[in-house]
Automatic annotation (TrEMBL):
Belongs to the sigma-70 factor family. ECF subfamily. Coiled coil: none annotated. CDD domains: Sigma70_r4. Keywords: DNA-binding, Sigma factor, Transcription, Transcription regulation. GO terms for molecular function: DNA binding; sigma factor activity. GO terms for biological process: DNA-templated transcription initiation. Residues 20-82 form the RNA polymerase sigma-70 region domain. Interacts transiently with the RNA polymerase catalytic core formed by RpoA, RpoB, RpoC and RpoZ (2 alpha, 1 beta, 1 beta' and 1 omega subunit) to form the RNA polymerase holoenzyme that can initiate transcription. This is Sigma-70 family RNA polymerase sigma factor. Residues 138-190 form the RNA polymerase sigma factor 70 region 4 type domain.
């Protein structure tokens, strides 16, 4: 190959890779909905790009590049979902516990729906982010996990990504009639599952009342003022802490848990994040033996409903999650 041809090929390669990169965030969000894990979603996107790169010469342009990448991503996800295991939230596995219950042994990380940073899932367009936040909520992602893998893909393609029945059928190599039939079954399952889910609103950083509610939570939690905290909670608020299956419900039980088993959270610090799953989120640091050092405790997310908080989730796998969210492994005063 001549030097000129080599430069031309390199330029084309760079252009192709850039065209893939333009779809990374939406593909990551899609894979996350399918898999329930931000880490697996990133792996799925990387494998999608690898397969797409290797087969790019066979891409004939009969569909858009976006549709072609989604077809590959779907096959990658279906390969990764080849098994009975589904991710869940603690409240999907058992009923609420009393606040004085002994913590059970932690479950493996593959049991739980994990949080995903907004930056991995949303583009720069606020309108686009607003339209996708609802389907990245923890409750929605957990509900989707109840579906068989192919129904999961069809529901997301048709109702989240708005692909047509024909486009979806082409991606899955089935008939449009099969797509429509599977979609009806998926909708029926989702309707039953979501009846039991905590209701939450889409979080809008520009909404002054929502910001006031979140700021009130931070102030009450860092002061460990349980009276102020419970005033912000809905009557059916749920507190959970993956990887533990235990969870508690109700403001009084949340307060009792915080003052009992959760008392190590006293004097914590909450570092605001750009968001997780479209929800308000924080890097939660707890005190250490050194009064000038706080250590990672959780990625904490809030679910809001009206003028109250309906869900508190403390994701405790800090060794994996703090680097994912770009957080340091210790916090010192400025």
């Amino acid at each position: 190959m001549s030097e000129k041809a080599a430069r031309s090929a390199a330029t084309m390669s760079d252009d192709v890779l850039r065209s893939f990169e333009g779809h990374r965030r939406e593909l990551c969000a899609y894979a996350y909905r399918m898999l329930g894990s931000s880490f697996e979603a990133e792996d799925a996107v990387q494998e999608t790009f690898t397969r797409a790169w290797k087969s790019y010469d066979s891409f004939e342009g009969r569909s858009s590049l976006r549709s072609w990448l989604y077809k590959i991503a779907t096959n990658v996800c279906l390969d990764m979902l080849d098994g009975p295991q589904r991710r869940a939230r603690p409240m999907d596995l058992n009923g609420p516990s009393t606040p004085d219950s002994t913590l059970p042994a932690p479950e493996p990380d593959y049991v739980w729906v994990e949080p995903i940073p907004n930056a991995l899932a949303f583009g720069a367009d606020p309108a686009e982010a607003a339209s996708t936040k609802d389907t990245l909520r923890l409750a929605f992602v957990a509900a989707v996990q109840h579906l068989p893998a192919s129904q999961r893909a069809i529901l997301i393609m048709r109702e989240v990504l708005r692909f047509s029945a024909g486009e979806t059928a082409d991606m899955l190599n089935v008939s449009p009639a099969s797509v429509n039939s599977a979609l009806q079954r998926a909708r029926a399952t989702m309707s039953k599952v979501q009846e039991k889910s905590t209701v939450s609103d889409v979080f809008d950083e520009r909404n002054e009342e929502q910001r006031k509610l979140v700021d009130g939570f931070v102030k009450a939690f860092e002061a460990y003022d349980m009276d102020a905290l419970t005033e912000l909670l809905k009557a059916d608020v749920a507190l959970s802490m993956p990887p533990f299956s235990l969870w508690v419900s109700g403001p009084e039980n949340v307060a009792a848990f915080m003052l009992g088993t959760g008392k190590a959270c006293r004097d914590s610090r909450l570092v605001p994040l750009a968001g997780a799953n479209g929800l308000p989120a924080f890097g939660h640091y707890k005190p250490s033996d050194d009064p000038d050092v706080w250590l990672p405790w959780s990625i904490t997310t809030l679910e809001l409903n009206g003028d109250r908080i309906s869900g508190l989730t403390f994701f405790l796998d800090t060794e994996k999650l703090f680097p994912l969210f770009g957080l340091p492994m210790e916090l010192r005063p400025n």
